[in-house]
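Predict the structure of histidine kinase.
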Amino acid sequence: MRISPLRLWLQSTSLLAVLAGYSLLLLFNQGMAGLQRRLAYERLVSDLVVELRARAPNANQLEPLLRQALLPSLRLQLLSVASAKADSPVLQQRGAQGWLSSAQPLQLADGSNFTLVVEQNVTASVQQESMAFWLLVVAAGVSSLFTSGLLRLVLQRGLVQPLQEFTTQLSATQASSLAWDQIPVAEQPEELQPIALAFNNLQQRLSVSWERQRSFVDGVAHELRTPITLISGHAQRLLRQPGLAATAPSLRLIEQEAQRMASLMSDLLDLARQDSGRLQLRRLPIVVDEAMVQAYERLAPSSGWRLHLDTPAAELPVAIGDPERLQQCLAALIENALHYSPTPRPVSLAADQQGDSLVLHVCDQGPGVEAGEREAIFERFARGSASINSSNRGSGIGLAVVRLLMEAMGGSVQVADAPGGGADFQLHLPLARPLAVVSA
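Done. Here is the predicted structure for histidine kinase.
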């Protein structure tokens, strides 16, 4: 069920409350007008009975008085049948006119009893009351519209704007600045101060937990780097010694796993440096042709010569970035492509220029990356659906490290469909700006 916005709910509720108040006011006003008309009629009838008793002590003197025109809107009728008690006034509609009518007992001084029927024309009073009612309805409608507009303005300034500013402050909070990027509680509206205080307390707890996690990863990566280097070095030394043919496969496996662990430790260190704001990269001119040849010569033998280097169709301009980190990104993408591209299908390395960027392509012939996963695979510890049927034992942080390194160099990484099927991972680097020639 979709929940309506709080502003709309408050505005609707307030407007309904105003309309309900006006309705009660109109009903009360109408009831008071009817009550006043009835009380005035009862006073008139009471005064008539007293006047007739005083001026007509017997029935013979009563008849001439009743024939006199007391008021144009008043009709009197005398019944010889005595009434036990006075009737309540009844409003009767006779055509377009309204009449109040009641029967009152009348006892004269000579002891004779009659019933006096008093009818009063209250058409003017009823019409005036109806006109006043509709005028109040129109006034209530106009007032409701004005109240609705005023409520909208009040809610906008008193609720929506403070919430938007509060949301902006929350959105600006970064994981690396949880400890000191606190929301100023005193500057918030009174209703939002408990929320701001609770959020600040949550930030403090998250900051402590985040710092502990970051320190643990950083410390473990530093501590493991030395033994991993020693294991790899000793394995390589043993492989160079003669007479160890039986143990050579095990030594090669030890060396490969040690190198993989060293690469993983390097990635973890980069993530820890990025989280703490300590990741610093150089921005130097890069000759892309030389960088591609260097990556090919370093990685082609270990790939079983499945890595192919495509010759650029034209001379490529110079890019800007960190040469060592670019080699790290290329190695990670090539290794990833070799894992997902079935043997003996090749993995190609190419480059071209696209607008103001120089793009390095690592294309495989694997299952590719689904469109809905092309952003998620660059998140930490995320792996695409293609990894389910793959023997790749990746940690899920390689592509995340590639993205943070490329962004730190002022570039980006993305994936698209390769022309011949598979995935095309692209490293975008900014072009070097040509130096301005100053004429003498």
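The two ends are 74 Å apart (CA to CA).
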